[in-house]
Design a protein that fits this description.
It comes from Linum tenue. By secondary structure, the protein is of the alpha/beta class. It contains 12 helices and 31 strands.
Length: 612
Amino acid sequence: MHDLIHDLAKFVSGELCFRLEGSDSWKVSQMTRHVSLETACYSPSVQFEAISRYPSLRTFLPLHRGWRLRVLSFSGYDVAELSVSVGGLKHLRYLNLSGTHIEKLYDSVSSLYNLQTLILNDCRKLTLLPDSFGNLINLHYLNNGETKLKEMPSQMGKLSNLRKLTDFVLGKGSGSTIKELGQLHYLHESLTIWNLQFVNDVRDASLANLKGKKYLKLLKFVWNSNTDDSVHERVVLEQLQPTTNLESLSIIGYGGTRFADWLGHFSFSTMASIELRGCKHCSSLPPLGQLGSLKNLSIVAFDAVLAVGPEFYGSSPMGKKSFGSLKTLLFEKMENWQEWNSAGRIGSGAFPVLEQLYIKDCPNLSKAMPSKAFPKLKMLSLRYCDSLESLLELTDSTINSDASSLDSLEVSNCPNLVSFPKGGLLAPNLTQLLLQSCLKLKSLPEKMHSLIPSLLLLRLTDCPELESFPEGGLPSKLQSLEIYDCSKLIAWRRNWKLQSLPALLHLYIGSDIAMESFPHDEAMLPPTLTSLEISDLQNLKSLDTRCFRHLTSLERLKIKNCPELEFIPNEKLPSSLRLLSIIMCPLLRLRCQQEKGELWPMISHIRDIFVY
């Protein structure tokens, strides 16, 4: 209404509002915001050709009631209101309003009795559907994801032909209760049920009959507030038992102290992915090890869990290993988690094919990890684990063997890590080692050139106490070396001996230290380099000419945020160079201007030059 009143003042000038009544009448301002088509002489294709010219359109009063239009889409248009006249399109089968600014739909939409597809996703201002929405008895497909709907309208159960419903929103008001889902027998694909805290009668949860919806594949349960009745929440979850054909399940914000008995039952033979998040009152995990097809598992924000043990592995049938198909496992924001037990016979053979393990924000985990549990592990990521140094020692025997398949190790934000235990967490097949924000780390693993001979990428970020590379140098197969905010290590750069690395292709250096010239030593950079990046050297004034003469393979040179840098080599950069990028280097930018800059002759031969 604010827009309408504001724009009404400009109506007389014809600047913002007009009516199409003649063949030339749409030749008006691009600022047009309100359009009315009041004659029947325009075909739908002509009308949409007309409105596509007006990017500021807010209201469209569109069509003659006599037209037999089947498809209507405003997807992506800046439309804030849909006219009641749309209700006259009795033959409409498909209506797409995705990405518009519509806040509500009028009751007239409910008279589109032949409508089969309604797309409302990404209507981020949409809060209400009409009370008479249940009249759309022929609706097959309703996509209402990414909206602000407060609740589903009453009598949703009348839409018995629905095959696809993305989101079912429960509310406090007089809208549909969860039992209305019981009449939607043919739902396919995915369904998210929001605001489960509003289920007051557990019988309603049972009448939703999720167990009988055999075509559902992905299901998400969401609670959006704390509860004072954990028993009620558990009974509700128990009654929401889904079809055993389910492939993916998410449970978010559940307030019970333990999970329903059906979760983790081996009868869910097709379950491939599970996410459990924000279940803060649960002190133990369900027996998910019994799910033979489970491939991806995320467990996030379980404040009450102190230990993970036998209950997690369950009791798999004889001959079956717990988590026999699991490939990716994430534990995150487990603030009070202290212990991870292997649970004897069952746990010792668990995770036979696990490839990726992520442990994040688990500051108190220190006592154990499953013994001999990761024979196929390829990626291990440890972040924000304050008690990591004990942890590393305990995992030494777990994955350090000639048969280990571990090829990527990330250790991030672990403030108590000072050094690596001998051999700890290092395997001969390791190809990537990423260390970030380990503020007390003083040394890299001893003899890493022989312990991890296959290392290809070494990334060191924000390790201010790290002083040098280990004795014996870096592994000879290393191809990429990235060093950022490691001030002591960069200050020690004269002793890096990178020229002894015959395979090094990429070098990245970034740090705010008092370095005026780079690299200082002609022999510092190996001739094998194809890519060199320099970033955030606030005091850097020049690049050393001598060091670039022998970089005959260099193809990419990127320089970023070096505000004092004014000089590059005073002779042509290597002829092999194909890309030069200079970003946030104001002094150098002026000197490298096309044709005008005094350094232009030194760089003009380069194919791609980007100067910002």
